[in-house]
Amino acid sequence: MSDEPPIEKPRKRMVKKPSGGGDAGRMKSTRVKTAKRRTASSNAWLERQLNDPFVAEAKAKGYRARAAFKITEIDDKIKVLHRGAKVIDLGCAPGGWIQVAIERGVTEIVGIDLLPLDPLKPAIIVQGDFTDPGCGDRLIALLGGAPDVILSDMAPNTVGHRQTDHLRIAGLIEAALEFALEVLKPGGAFIAKAFQGGELAEVLRQLQTHFSKVNHVKPKASRAGSSEIFLVATGYKGRPQA
């Protein structure tokens, strides 16, 4: 589940890409007046949103979240989202990654999230908990076969205790990876959000064992102050032998 809120669609699409030096790149800084019912952290988040060129670009393109630019940059490098690919998106709300996949020709895609999600045809959207027993089998049945790509933007609600939060994040990645190792087609790809400093040693060992290539990627759309990174594994070697 993405930690970014949905972005409302605009009426006009007049903003240029942040990297192109256009209007979005020259946005004037906007300061937020403190409201009685807003905390300092809420004001800081709102100010970042108002001054973020990727937020402006997402609105211009009709993306539901700026996170769309993260998967765009990743896929520009590895090119796994294309016509004919079968894709499962874990933690898909609010739908930005699905939008990019559809733009790139994917017509067979199933997404799941705890939060409700407005339709994104031709994607099949499931509201539920990926970690529930039997959920993985249901996703494969809806997809109509083994996936070529598994995406995971899942992130748990944090409790404020650094070690506990890292363990919970690592647990979700491990669950997603275990699923991927069971169902991915040979040659398939696995992309998952992680956080620097997390308990990822075992996850990395598994990735390096079962995939031909493993990289850490921090897209430009990931905020500089965030510890967010993405694990990108390609060339799945096939289901582990028992």
Query: Count of helical segments?
Result: 7
The biggest beta sheet is recorded as: 7 strands, mixed
Distance between the termini: 31 Å
Which CATH top level class of the domain at 68-236 fits?
Alpha Beta
Low-confidence residue ranges: 9-30
Taken from the alpha-carbon principal axes, the silhouette is globular
Beta-strand percentage range: 15-25%
Give the proportion of residues in helices.
Answer: 25-40%
Compute the average pLDDT: 81
List keywords for this structure.
Rossmann fold, globular, 7 helices, 17% strand, alpha/beta, seven-stranded mixed sheet, single chain, 33% helix, 242 residues
What topology does this entry show?
Layout: H1 40-50, H2 53-61, H3 68-78, E1 86-90, H4 96-103, E2 108-113, E3 124-127, H5 135-143, E4 149-152, H6 162-183, E5 189-195, H7 201-210, E6 211-217, E7 228-236
Parallel strand pairs: 1-2, 1-4, 2-3, 4-5
Antiparallel strand pairs: 5-7, 6-7
Helix pairs in contact: 3-4, 6-7
Brief write-up:
Helices cover 33% and strands 17% of the residues. The chain is an alpha/beta fold and 242 residues long.
Give an overview of the whole structure.
Strand 1 (86-90), helix 4 (96-103) and strand 2 form a beta-alpha-beta unit. The protein contains seven helices and seven strands; from the N terminus they run H-H-H-E-H-E-E-H-E-H-E-H-E-E. The chain has 242 residues and is α/β, with parallel strands linked by helices. The protein has a domain at 68-236: Vaccinia Virus protein VP39 (Rossmann fold, 3-Layer(aba) Sandwich). The model is unreliable at 9-30 (pLDDT under 50). Strands 3-2-1-4-5-7-6 form a seven-stranded mixed beta sheet, with helices on both faces.
